[in-house]
Amino acid sequence: PADWTQYAIDTPTIEGLKKADREGYTTAFHRARTMTACPIGKGGTCCKICNMGPCRVLPPKGKDETPEERKKRTGLCGATPETIAARNFARMVAAGAAAHSDHGRHVAHTFLHAAKGELPDYQIKDIPKLFAIAMDYDIPTEGREIKDIAIDVGKRALQQYGQQDGEILNVKRAPLKRQEIWKQEGVIPAGIDRPVVEVMHMTHMGVNQEMEHIIRLATKCSLADGWGGSMIATDLSDILYGTPVPILGKVNLGCMKEDTVNIIVHGHEPSLSEIIVQAVQDPEMIAYAKSKGATGGISLGGICCTSNEILMRHGIPVAGNYLQQEIAVITGALEAIVVDVQCVMQGLAELAKCFHTQVVTTSPIAKMQGAYKHYSYDERYGLETAKAIVKDAIDNFPNRDKNKVSIPTEQQDMVVGFSHETISYMLGGMFRASYRPLNDNIINGRVRGLAGIVGCGNARVKNDYLHVELAKELIKNDVLVLTTGCSAIALGKAGLLTPEASKYCGAGLAEVCETVGIPPCLHMGSCVDNSRILMAATAVVRDGGLGDDISDLPAVGCAPEWMSEKAVSIGQYFVASGVYVLFGVGFPTINEDVCTNYLFKDIEKTYGGRWDFVEKDPYEMAKRIIAQIDAKRKALGIDK
Ligand code: NFS
């Protein structure tokens, strides 16, 4: 068996993997040790878009081939390596944008029907944000019923998806200078769905064969995600379920208990998990659990971004991030894992067969072979469905095999819930909410800059290690970290989402964190909530003193352990919004130089942002990020 301390840093994961070895279970960690990634596909130079191929155009670098010889290689149709790399990249962007945007569509759909009063278990919660969004959407509010405003907001959001002409609404939130750049480049999406279809079309055999143009249309698609679908997902979830405010939370598998029915929700969309939160608090359900021998009642935890959604709004504990989904099953004490969409491993179903765990799929678009039960979740029957799922899990409690149970006790406190609105209130105060105090601290150098650390875990590298070491290195150098997704959960487990973590900070950042009473790493939510980071960056620009565009800010983005296509879309919309973005663990086009050079260098001339890549050294990552921040400070004339 492998030495798991080489592949994970957190004790429950390491212990879970050892248990898997002892008892003969297999996880993604195991598979990553026995399977190698395809070296040609990984670098972006395998073309499989037509039936004359697949054409493996370029072998991995380092084979005995001169750059000239490499350049001569083409696919059977003559497609050049850079066209192929760009097309593959663009398709990743499209898949990621589709996932985020369809999530947003689902939220908008639920929102509209809730607004109409058709969903008894859903009510509009955040009225001030409803008014703010209505204003952004040009919907009149004066003298109108809340219900009518909400219906209009829901309709307008849904209409954005199929809009064929003009511009998506939210681009006007961006700094004016940014909008000009997008206009000039022709990358403002008309609607949200159309650019996804366009990318699928233009990457079909025999369509777009100019690398830069392929990337341009991929950029438009990514903007339809970040400033479109993802932003709608965030805004409408906030209005419907509440905008996050700072709240205490806990993270790690210690949220599961020996004497409770343990249920974990996993995936991304909050619609069902919001109602499950209510169901597990129902006294009848708790009494029922006790009647089945679970003397402690019911424990609810979460994994991945569904978890982040209910953590931010209700303080529901996080069981773990992406690579803990199988480890949670291996505890032997999980009655049900309720999954919706995205980042759910098919390996779960096989693994669950070794235990009593019920895998429950709930999305109309996501079934799993071997799952215990499937619900095509319909919001009209919200609480009824949630209760049926919880009741099933309770009935499953007596099936728990005590001999197989080992629950970790680790649980780490954290402070979460930093929506961009909340950050503004915390810094500026209720009556003059503003980012100006942050700007002042950036100008005076107490805060050197801002870094978004986001994205997944990847079984190819030591789990959580890159996130945590990078964050520590950055806060040590006075860089304030904004975090979302599985990265935020990794930082939480490491104790970096607590005000006490200011002990890892440089003197300047420590002072700011202690004065305001915030952690040096701010958990801003799930991956669609990267749109909050865009809004925060825009607010920093608006509140003055740091240039007039996002690209002027000493701000960077990093996904050190990314694995999903969504991460590529996020990266691209940050680059297109003027941000330097660093990826770890491979880059989609890295085996091909022309497209990679464009993304890493030339694209900066257009957008002021660019890509970069460091395989797996968090200190090298930090070095490059800080160099980038310092260069921006210098350009602003605020370097010390
Ligand atoms: Ni983001 Fe969230 Fe996690 Fe990666 Fe998956 S859960 S949407 S994709 S793995 S951070």
Can you describe this structure in just a few lines?
The chain is built from 25 helices and 16 strands.
What's the average pLDDT? 96
Sheet-strand content, in percent, reads: 5-15%
Would you count the extended β strands for me?
A: 16
Shape: globular
Q: What would you report as the Rg, rounded to the nearest angstrom?
A: 24 Å
Describe the structure.
- The longest helix has 35 residues, at 81-115.
- The chain is globular and about 70 Å long.
- Helix 5 packs across helix 24 (593-607) and helix 9 (193-202) runs antiparallel to helix 10 (211-241).
- It is an alpha/beta fold and 640 residues long.
- It folds into 4 domains: 4-69, no CATH class; 81-241, Substrate Binding Domain Of Dnak, Chain:A, Domain 2; 253-404, 3-Layer(aba) Sandwich (Rossmann fold), CATH 3.40.50.2030; 419-636, Rossmann fold (3-Layer(aba) Sandwich).
- It has 25 helices and 16 strands.
- The mean pLDDT is 96.
- The strands form 4 sheets. It has a 6-stranded parallel β-sheet with strand order 6-5-4-7-8-9. It has a 6-stranded parallel β-sheet with strand order 13-12-11-14-15-16, sandwiched between helices. Strands 1-2 form a two-stranded antiparallel sheet.
- The structure holds FE(4)-NI(1)-S(5) cluster.
Spell out the blueprint of helices and strands.
Blueprint: H1 11-23, H2 28-34, H3 39-42, E1 46-47, E2 55-56, H4 67-72, H5 81-115, H6 127-136, H7 146-162, H8 176-185, H9 193-202, H10 211-241, E3 247-251, E4 260-266, H11 270-281, H12 283-291, E5 297-303, H13 304-314, E6 318-320, H14 325-330, E7 336-339, H15 347-352, E8 358-361, E9 373-374, H16 382-396, E10 412-416, H17 420-428, H18 436-443, E11 449-453, H19 465-476, E12 479-484, H20 485-493, H21 507-516, E13 521-525, H22 530-542, E14 555-559, H23 565-576, E15 580-583, H24 593-607, E16 611-613, H25 618-636
Parallel strand pairs: 4-5, 4-7, 5-6, 7-8, 8-9, 11-12, 11-14, 12-13, 14-15, 15-16
Antiparallel strand pairs: 1-2, 3-10
Helix pairs in contact: 5-7, 5-9, 5-10, 5-23, 5-24, 6-7, 6-10, 7-10, 9-10, 10-22, 10-23, 11-13, 11-16, 17-22, 19-25
The structure holds FE(4)-NI(1)-S(5) cluster.
